[in-house]
Design brief:
Its main location: membrane. This protein has 560 residues and is α/β, with parallel strands linked by helices. Helix content is 61%, strand content 8%. Strands 8-9-10-5-11-12 form a six-stranded mixed sheet, with helices on both faces. Strands 4-1-6-7 form a four-stranded antiparallel sheet, with no helix packed on it. The N terminus and C terminus are likely disordered.
Length: 560
């Protein structure tokens, strides 16, 4: 498996958190922390005042004074408001994290749809699940607790110190030790998290490839061998998880110990400096509000390292490949330099170009009605060139179709002027009618049914239990491979685009399908750019397009 940018340590840029409506959620979370600190201070003040009044008031037999019950009611109200704020924190954190992860998920899918699947299926699924979960956890269990907890901790500590300055040491010393411990543990925890991520990615990639290769594994008697290999990857992941758990345990243990020390030191400070019991009770009440945010600080450090590891994986995967500079208009200087006519008549014009393997591809000029058979020596080279005409790869030199330079064409324009079908193309999870008019969203159901009839699929689709409303699954089930090829042909022919690109589609068609293909292309009004093994069966007249050293000449193919 080739190394990805993430494997080499490259990092990519993730979306900014402080953007759009997420700003409102962030401000609300900080305000919630401050409000909880004020409510905690109010509760502590109520407890201190109630205890003092009770101690100075009527004897115990008389019970608490009415004013004490009033203060007790205020305490209950403050605690209820804290619960309401916690409810808001939970909702705002979910809105914040889901909105942020949504942006990243769309970026990952855009990358895969625009540049193609750049890694194994298993790794891509891991990025869309585990890595995005780590990013979401960092927001909900890392950023949010910090945004809410830091104002709460700072505000609460300030109120405790106001109650009695002697409490400064009882709170400050444990918190300082905790911050130092978290700083020391953060980097080792990150390294262990990266090890776990890599182990999990290797396991996912292996499992994905293994499942795709199930028929060859079974036919080769390799089930036991593959299970052993998968076991080794799984053992490595388990070991990495245990190593990470050791440091994670240290982080969580530190936070729990810190809150215990704060409580013990506060009681000790009250005894050492003879602080009134009512003041100590108020301080302990405030410290009770510190327990959860202090624990959350430890979890924030842990989830921060998981986020950093996920960023190493997800960041580069959201970056689109650099594209060459696009021409500003179809008739600008780059087109004239490459020999493409400055006035763009109907048809297809392509400037000479070179492929990644160094094959020199001559220019092409084709008028409507021309049939071009492309063959550049190897199938991969031919597919590389045809993918530029289909818009699957960015062309390095000008390609004009019906007067539009494909390098500057948007998706809507591209689908109107180019139809494309290739061997082995998988169909999405769509109804048959939607799959047919996928290139032509404005087409009606009647148009799609007519297209199915033209390619000879009408009766076959009608026999399905749900007819043309059948949802295709697993790339095209329940249609057979030849039937899928016919459906792809129907889609490519919708609205008769100026350029029809067929890349070895005939290999998926049965003999009857190739006869139907020949009939459909016989009077096709646009340019047909074809690559395949059955050119003699498809075209009566065609023109070869070959590598630069080959001689271009008109060739007549006579069907047998």
């Amino acid at each position: 498996m080739s190394a990805s940018p993430a494997d080499t340590g490259a990092t990519g840029s993730l979306p900014a958190l402080w953007r759009g409506r997420r700003r409102r959620y962030l401000v609300a979370l900080v305000a919630s922390g401050l409000a909880q600190a004020l409510l905690a201070g109010t509760g502590a003040h109520v407890i201190r005042t109630a205890l003092e009044r009770y101690q100075k008031g009527a004897p115990a037999a008389a019970g608490p004074a009415p004013a004490v019950w009033t203060l007790f009611g205020l305490l209950i109200a403050a605690l209820l408001l804290v619960g309401v704020l916690q409810y808001g924190v939970r909702v705002w954190s979910e809105l914040l994290s889901q909105d942020y992860v949504h942006d990243i998920r769309i970026g990952l899918m855009r990358r895969n749809l625009t540049a193609g699947l750049t890694s194994s299926l298993g790794v891509s699924v891991t990025r869309l699940s585990n890595d995005l979960t780590s990013i979401r956890n960092w927001i909900t269990l890392g950023i949010v607790p910090v945004l809410v907890g830091v104002p709460l901790i700072v505000g609460t500590c300030a109120i405790v110190v106001v109650l009695d300055p002697a409490y400064l040491l009882s709170i400050g010393v444990p918190l300082a030790l905790l911050l130092g411990a978290l700083a020391l543990l953060a980097e080792p925890l990150f390294r262990r998290t990266m090890e776990l991520r890599r182990s999990r990615g290797r396991l996912s990639a292996h499992l994905g490839d293994m499942l795709l290769a199930t028929p060859s594994i079974r036919s080769g008697g390799g089930i036991r061998r593959e299970l052993k290999r998968a076991g080794r990857y799984s053992d490595a992941m388990v070991e990495a998880a245990v190593r990470r758990a050791r440091f994670s345990g240290l982080v969580r243990g530190s936070t729990i110990t810190t809150t215990g020390l704060i409580t013990a030191f506060t009681v000790g400070a009250g005894l050492l400096w003879s602080i009134p019991a009512s003041t100590t009770a108020a301080a302990l009440t405030l410290i009770g509000f510190l327990v959860a945010p202090v624990h959350d600080l430890g979890r924030a450090v842990e989830y921060r390292q998981m986020y950093r590891a996920a960023q190493r994986m997800v960041g580069p995967a959201t970056l689109l490949p650099a594209e060459p500079e696009r021409p500003r208009r179809p008739d600008d200087a780059p087109r004239r330099r490459t020999g493409v006519p400055s006035a763009a008549p109907a048809g297809v014009f392509a400037a000479p170009r070179s492929t990644s393997d160094g094959t020199a591809i001559p220019g092409l000029a084709a008028a409507p009605g021309d049939r071009i058979v492309a063959d550049f020596g190897s199938r991969s080279t031919t597919a590389q060139v045809l993918s530029q005409f289909a818009g699957l790869a960015t062309a390095t030199e000008a390609i004009l179709v019906d007067g539009t330079d494909l390098r500057a064409a948007g998706d809507d324009r591209l689908r109107r002027i180019v139809g494309y079908a290739a061997q082995g193309m998988l169909l999405g999870r769509l109804t048959i009618l939607t799959a047919v008019r996928y290139r032509s969203p404005a087409a009606t159901d009647a148009d799609a049914r007519a297209a199915l009839q033209r390619v000879g699929l009408g009766e076959r689709v009608d026999r399905l239990a749900k007819g043309d409303q059948t949802v295709l699954r697993h790339g095209g089930d329940p249609l057979t491979v030849p039937e899928r090829a016919r459906l792809l042909l129907a889609r490519a022919l919708m609205e008769s685009p100026a350029l029809l690109v067929l890349d070895h589609l005939d290999a998926d068609l049965d003999p009857a399908g190739r006869i139907r293909l020949r009939e459909l292309l016989a009077d096709y009004p646009g340019v047909v750019l074809y690559a395949g093994e059955h050119g003699d069966d498809v075209f009566a007249v065609s023109r070869p397009w070959q590598a630069a050293e080959a001689t271009s000449r008109r060739v007549r193919h006579r069907p047998a």
